């Protein structure tokens, strides 16, 4: 025997046989307003297939019963309120449109886990958005947000938040309420500071801050012990906090195009660091502790003001690429000859005499060395 609940289960199935059965069952159940339940499919089908006027088919209904709704580059100015009826949705991709707002009905999508809204014209989200408690990924890149949308701090399941290319000048301190957040991308904004309590985002693994106006990083950043990627290039950083050495799982650190004068000795505690990029700064020396980075493969320090390299650089047994072009070097420490894995050495734009260059070549016979001809 069929009832309304069973009818809806059949109608919302991804099996065409079940959908056809639901339509047949509805004919014998006067209490069911079939036109009402089909409205969402008619509206969404017209949205996905502009110009389509025929009655919505079993195939079209089945197609819309998917858990994944893709609406990229549809030139949409709005999403229809009926979208809230697609209760099975777990992912919506509505990127590259002209959306300025979302319907309140979106809060009805209790199963929604992933929402891609990048490259629209959004500056806020509806109050009902706070009801999307299963959301794990939210992409708001290339919109017009200047603050975290109200209500989303209740998203305890959120793992990835992308806010690139917006208008943020600061991050609210309540961002730490995202207790499970693993990836935070906020490149290309106007950030001048980070919250002092950012260290409370204890599950954070990736933090991308490039192309902002940051002058410092808070000491609490050292509490992000799960962090493995920190990208803060193209900012105005003049120094790094000593606590950075506490992020011992870090394997990728990008700090190029800042105003760094020196690195803290604690940076040598980053034993698992694989990439270190500090090109285009104002460094006059590297700390001896850099030799403790046992797994460093890539070290880029070109376009600084280095006149020497530390003797400890010869301890970087895994180093494969050393880029020190455009500094003030006249020689390299002899210990560099111990870098048996070194494959590429960039020396262009320094003051190394030909005789000294020949000595360096003799120390590293299997390394490609780039220099001024």
From TrEMBL:
Q: Which domain of life is it from?
A: Bacteria
Gene Ontology cellular component terms for the protein in this record: cytoplasm
Name one matching Pfam family: LRR_8
Q: Residue limits of the Disease resistance R13L4/SHOC-2-like LRR domain?
A: 296-362
**Keywords, in A-Z order:** Leucine-rich repeat, Repeat
As given in the record, the signal peptide range reads none
Residue stretches spanning the membrane? none
Q: Which PANTHER family match?
A: P53-INDUCED DEATH DOMAIN PROTEIN 1 (PTHR48051:SF39), PTHR48051
**What protein name does the entry list?**
Leucine-rich repeat containing protein
């Amino acid at each position: 025997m069929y009832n309304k609940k069973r009818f809806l289960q059949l109608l919302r199935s991804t099996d065409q046989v079940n959908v056809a059965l639901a339509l047949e069952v509805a004919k014998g159940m006067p209490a069911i307003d079939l036109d009402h339940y089909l409205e969402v499919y008619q509206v969404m089908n017209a949205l996905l297939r502009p110009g389509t006027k025929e009655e919505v088919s079993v195939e079209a209904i089945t197609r819309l019963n998917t858990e994944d709704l893709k609406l990229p580059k549809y030139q949409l100015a709005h999403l229809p309120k009926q979208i809230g009826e697609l209760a099975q949705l777990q992912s919506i991709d509505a990127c590259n449109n002209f959306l300025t707002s979302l319907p309140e009905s979106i809060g009805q999508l209790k199963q929604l886990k992933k929402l891609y809204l990048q490259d629209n014209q959004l500056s806020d989200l509806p109050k009902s958005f706070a009801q999307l408690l299963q959301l794990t990924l939210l992409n708001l890149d290339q919109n017009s947000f200047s603050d975290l949308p109200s209500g989303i701090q209740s998203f305890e399941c959120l793992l990835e938040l992308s806010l690139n290319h917006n208008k943020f000048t600061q991050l609210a301190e309540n961002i730490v309420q995202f207790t499970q957040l693993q990836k935070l991308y906020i490149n290309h904004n106007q950030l001048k500071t980070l919250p002092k309590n950012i260290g409370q985002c204890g599950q954070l693994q990736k933090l991308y801050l490039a192309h902002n106006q940051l002058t410092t990083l808070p000491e609490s950043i050292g509490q992000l012990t799960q962090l493995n990627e920190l990208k803060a290039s193209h900012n105005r950083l003049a120094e790094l906090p000593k606590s950075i050495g506490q992020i011992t799982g870090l394997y990728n650190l990008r700090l190029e195009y800042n105003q760094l004068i020196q690195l803290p000795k604690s940076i040598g505690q980053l034993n698992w660091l694989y990439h270190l990029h500090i090109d285009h700064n104002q460094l006059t020396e590297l700390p001896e502790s850099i030799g403790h980075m046992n797994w460093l493969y890539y070290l880029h320090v070109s376009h600084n003001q280095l006149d020497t390299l530390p003797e400890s650089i010869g301890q970087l047994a895994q180093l494969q690429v050393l880029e020190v072009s455009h500094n003030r070097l006249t020689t390299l420490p002899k210990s560099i000859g111990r870098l048996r894995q070194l494959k590429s050495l960039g020396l262009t734009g320094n003051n190394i005499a030909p005789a000294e260059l020949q000595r360096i070549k003799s120390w590293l016979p299997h390394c490609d060395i780039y220099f001024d001809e």
